[in-house]
Predict the structure of Protease Do-like 1, chloroplastic.
Amino acid sequence: MIRPPGTATGSLKEDDRRNMPAFVAAASGALFARRVLGAPCADPRPCPLQMGLEREEKNEEALTRTSTQPLAHVRRAMNGVIVGAALAAVLAMPLHAEVSPLKHMGSLSARLPVPPPAFAFAESDSILQAERSTIELFQRCKPSVVNITTFQNGRTPMSTNIMEIPQGQGSGFVWDEQGHVVTNFHVIRAGSGAKIMLDDNSVYPAELVGYDADKDVAVLRMAARKDEIVPIAKGNSAALQVGQTVFAIGNPFGLDHSLSRGIVSGLGRTMRSPTGKPISNVIQTDAAINPGNSGGPLLDSGGKLIGMNTSILSGSGSSSGVGFAIPIDTLRAVVDELITHGKVVRPVIGISYLDSSQAKAFGIDSGVLILDVPANSNAEKAGLKGTSRGPFGAIEFGDVIVSLDGDKIRSEGDLFRALEQKKVGQDVELKVKRGDSVVSVHVVLSASSPK
C-alpha cells in the first residue's frame, strides 16, 4: 500500500488524510520529473513509486557516471525538481479553493490584491453621490434655519427677581436680508418674548413684526450682523407632485439643526389653524416631524423652500409618518403682507356663524347658518338675517348661506376658501336659504378687524 512517508501501517490519522493529496501530488511530480526529464527523485527518502524502477535507476546511474557532460545532468535534475514542485503545488490545492494565479506566490500576492468586480465600483459610486448631494444640501441650507426659544417674564418661588422663564421652543428660517424670520404663530403665542439662535450659536432677541393666527404664521426680526444673515432660497408649491423627495430641517426635541428625509405623500390637505379656521392646500409628507420642528422649512431636492412644517397627525405626539406643511405659495402672500403692514387684512362678510358640526344637531346638513348680523354692517345693509328667539322663546333660525358667486358652500371651510379669492370692497352674490325659499343677496365685502 502506498503510504505518506513516516506513516505507520493501519488506519490513517486525521492529519495524514489531510496530507494525502500533497503526498500523491509530490510523488506524481517526482515521477513526472523522472519519466519526462530524466532527473532523479528530489526526495532523498525511498520513493514508493520508484520501487518498480530500480533497474532503470541503476542503468541511469551507470550512464551518468560515464557521461562526458556532468553539467547537462545537473540542469536536467534542477529542471525536474522545479517542474515537479510546481506540479505538486497545483495538485495539492484543495478542490474547493479559489483559483488565483497570485494566491500561492507568497508576499507578491499581498502586494498585488485581486481587484473586485467592476459593478461593485458603480454601485458604490451611486450611493456615495446620492449621499454627497444630501450633505451638500444640508450644509448649504442650515445657516438659514434658526432655533426659536420663547419665555415669560416672571418670578420663581425662590426669588423676587424678574426672570425669563422658558415657555417653549421651535424652528424658523431667515426670510430676507433685513433679518426677518418666519415661524408658526403657535410657536410664539405662549411667550412674552423670544430669542433666536443661529447656526453659529449666536443668540439675538426677537422683535415681533406681526402674525396671522388664521394661517398660523408669524414674522420676527433680529438685529444680526449682515454676514450672519443667510436668506433661504424660495421655490414654489403649485407644481408639486406626490412622490417628490423633500427634506425637513429643524430642532426636534431641542436637537438643533436636525435633518430628515421623505417624500410628498399628499397634496391639497386641510388642517385647522389655532383659531379653528381651515388652512387649505396643505402639503402632507412622511419626513419625520416632531415637537420642535414646527416653523422649520420643508425643502425640495434642490434645497428650495416649498413649505413650513406645522403639525403632525399622531396619537403619541411624536412622528407617525403623517406631517403637514403650509405651502410656500400661501406663506409668500401672508409674510409679505405682515412685513409691509404688520397685519393681514382679509375680506369678510361681517357675520358670526355656527360651526357646521353643531348646526347638524339642528338638522342643517349643508350650508353656513348665520348667528348674528352686526348693526350698521354691510351684511345688515344687504338684508341678511341672523338667528334669534321668538316672542315665546322659540329659536328662529337665520339665513343659511349655500352659495357665493356660484361656488357651493357646504360648510364654513368652503366659505373661507371662497372668500380668499376675493378683495376688500368687492361686491359678491350670496344665495341663502330663508325658510323654505332660496334668496339672492348682494354684499360688499368688509375688511377684517386686526387681531
Summary: The mean pLDDT is 78. Residues 33 and 80 are 4 Å apart (CA to CA). The longest helix spans residues 14-37.
